[in-house]
Amino acid sequence: MEKVISFFFSKILNKEVHNISGQTIGKLNDLILDFQQERPIVKYMKIRNGKRYFYVSSEKLHIRKNTNEKYDIRIDSESLLVRLPEETDIFLVRDFLDKQIVDINGRKVERVNDVRLAYIKNTMSLLAVDIGTRGLLRRLGAEYAFIKLSSLFKYKLRNKLIIWNNVQPLSSGSEKLKLLCAANKIETLHAADIADIIEDLDNKNGDILFNSLNKQKAAEVFEEIETDVKVNLLNTMSDEKASDIFGIMPSDEVADILEEIDEERAEKLLTKLNEESQEEIRELMEYEKESIGSIMSKDFLTFLPDLTVSETINWLKNNPVDEEESINLYITNNKDNLLGVISLFSIITASKDAKLYNVMNSQPKYLNDEDSVETSIELMQKYNLTSLPVLDENNCLVGTVSLNDSIHELITLRRVAL
Amino acid sequence: MKTTIQSKFKKILFIFTIIGPGLITVNAGNDAGGITTYASVGASYGYKMLWGLLLITFSLAVIQEMNARMAIVTGKGLSDLIREKFGVKLTFLAMLILLIANMGVVLGDFAGIAASLELFKVSKYISVPIAATLIWLLVTKGSYKKVENIFMLFTFVFFTYIISAFLIHPNWGTIFKAMATPTIEFKSGFLLTFIGMIGTTITPYMQFYLQSSIADKKLSLADYKYEKLDVYLGAFWGNAVSFFIIVCTAATLYKAGITITSAQQAALALKPLAGEFAFILFGAGLLGASALATAVIPLSTSYAICEAFGWESGVDNEFKDAPAFFGIYTGILLISALFILLPGISLIKILLVSQQIAGILSPIILTFMIILINDKNIMGKYVNNKTQNIISWLTVAFIITLSVILFVSPLFS
């Protein structure tokens, strides 16, 4: 008999538990863990004796195995520390095993097939989560049979473990589990990846995960989520949270989503925004669904033609400007008519005291707000551009369209057509 | 004013998108196995089993409502819930049962494809391989959704049984009397047919499919009342069609002493309506229903199993990313199609036996469901009420009792 330092939970689940004199006191039914630690720590075990259940401290719990891989579970203590379970207790089997988690590294929703426990500094802790098929086979008691079988085909059946640092539990088992994992590991991921994960989850879990994000991240993620899932999230979201997020999001994205929801709610949410964005969004919502006007961005930078290059650079330095908005600067007269375009590159390389009208491209390519997405992509592809200004019927600059948004819209339209 | 009308219209449209899965599920549930089973119920035993159909209509309504409630409250499919509550071993059992039952149903539906095209003098050695390949390509290459509606249109042919039933002027008094007076024969033929009728109505596949499709709609609890209406309507409407099939075959075939041994005889019941076109009508309907089921059932089985075990699933994936998903899907199609190609097997017999297997297995899945829906940790205050529990447990007990009698009765005769 040797002491086991690290082992799979399924090896001891439902096995007999012995006291110090070797008598069987019942079968191991579940474990209570403290999830507040950096690595969850096993606190108590739930033991089943016939129809009775009792809870014993796992402090003096030792696991040994003999050469035949037979596990022996023993409490090496004279007296058993017994207690009653509490409302807030989190159980390994009831709340975690077989439930869904997010694998932060793999950026995917996975199911917990088994759990790797280990003695670290003499306390039993949760080391890693097994999401592989080998874990499933182990639970079925068919692990070794399959290892033999697969070795016949020269295939090695491997464990698929995720260490605890990369595991984000979901609420599937218990709401408490979610709350207890204070550090939100999810937020380290890119917004587009989080959006994919939320789309994969069921309603309830998706909601909880989304609501755990901070405002800024929530807005970024919300933009990336598919429309129908967006609508669902919005239906359960509070008005406050929704207007917070809308405040951060670009107006064209807000207009898109408001067109999808109940009119009364849309109106109510709109009135919570500041007047300027309200007006922008209402304007965008007027456009036909497949026109450029409905997908254009209202966030762009315009300058008067007689400004100098150094004045412009100073302005850019001293004002909070979005990176994407500043790639192209638009030159307009005081009636908002488009006179020219300057790329950030030409601004930087131009001589400092040149006037903008001397530096700008005075025959810029542009779109009309009633144009189609296809036109936008064709034009950008032909002239090798990443964004285009959009003019209305009075030749006023009303927005800009990026290649990225055009392609995204085209893909969505195609999907609907299919 | 315009906006209020518009928003009213939107609301109605919205309700229609909710009411849909239930109706569609039941329509798809009246697949080849279903049609043949009901036809043989009427042809072999007349009106004698109508009381049973009436009772299981209520069971079906209660059970499907349970699926809808679980889907909306938890947002999860049935196989997810089974895995999370019962662990790997019992999930394995549940999935094995689902696989066997569904395999049987798919087998039945391939038999349906073969039988329907044999009416048009197409040999099964041609029709089955072509159908299997086409369905596999349609589903995995992603253009299946377009074709689904066409198959669906075919199945509306079975509504002609309703017209047919009125044209033959059956004795409605006798029919209603039969519905109110339970009769049972302790012969294995009768019992098997009865179990087949239950199996095709409360089929295990239906519970998984319905719950997943409702969960996918991501409805909120506020929409639950519409969804409830949908599943109740679906259950009663579906069984109304079954009722008329039984009436038709009872009033024509049973009277004439014809039992169903081929699709030709099953089509005879539509003769009063369609005359010589009865074969075409029945053949088209049977083909549509079978094709629909052979596309949907392997797919939903594959989804259910992969969800339960946490394997990658979805037709958008590449084969190497979701080998289990495509493996199961392809496996079910391939094995079923090959089985039908064995020379000399009776297509109608396969159709009937597959439903009987589904019937015998259904109590196991139902038991999982009833335990799940009564778990306060999962359902909160939306657990079953007393009436729902009594009806669902009685259904389980009734099917088990029938199966036990079926296996025990040969020992005493």
Overall description:
- The complex is a heterodimer of chains A (418) and B (413).
- In chain A, strands 1, 3, 4, 5, 6, 7, 8, 9 and 10 form a nine-stranded mixed sheet that branches. In chain A, strands 2-13-14-15 form a four-stranded antiparallel sheet.
- Chain A has helices at residues 92-95, 133-140, 143-152, 175-180, 191-200, 203-211, 215-224, 227-236, 239-248, 251-258, 263-271, 275-286, 292-295, 309-318, 344-349, 356-359, 373-383, 403-417, and strands at residues 2-3, 6-8, 16-18, 24-34, 41-49, 52-57, 61-65, 71-75, 82-83, 90-91, 100-103, 108-111, 114-120, 123-130, 161-163, 167-169, 302-303, 328-332, 338-343, 367-368, 387-391, 397-402.
- The N and C termini of chain A lie far apart (64 Å).
- Chain A contains 18 helices and 22 strands.
- In chain A, helix 7 crosses helix 9 (239-248).
- The model of chain A has no long low-confidence stretch (mean pLDDT 85).
- Chain B is mostly helical and 413 residues long.
- Chain B has helices at residues 2-18, 21-29, 32-45, 50-74, 78-119, 124-140, 144-155, 160-167, 172-180, 188-201, 204-216, 224-256, 263-268, 271-274, 278-309, 323-340, 347-373, 376-379, 386-412.
- Chain A binds chain B through residues 93-94, 97-100, 110-111, 113, 131, 133, 136, 139-140, 172-173, 202-205, 228-229, 232, 235-236, 262-264, 418, and chain B through 3, 7, 10, 74-76, 80, 83-84, 87-89, 91-92, 142-143, 145, 215, 218, 220, 309-311, 377.
How big is the Rg of chain A? 30 Å
**Assembly annotation:** heterodimer
What is Rg of chain B?
A: 21 Å
End-to-end CA span of chain B: 76 Å
Residue windows where pLDDT falls under 50 for at least 5 positions of chain A: none
Average pLDDT metric of chain A = 85
β content of chain A, as a range? Answer: 15-25%
Number of helices of chain B: 19
Could you report the average pLDDT of chain B, rounded to the nearest whole number?
86
- Approximate helicity band of chain B: over 70%
Which pair of chains forms the biggest interface, and how many residues does each contribute? A-B, 29 and 24 residues
Categorize the overall geometry of chain A. Answer: elongated
Described by the principal axes of the CA atoms, the overall outline of chain B is: globular
- The share of residues in helices of chain A is 25-40%
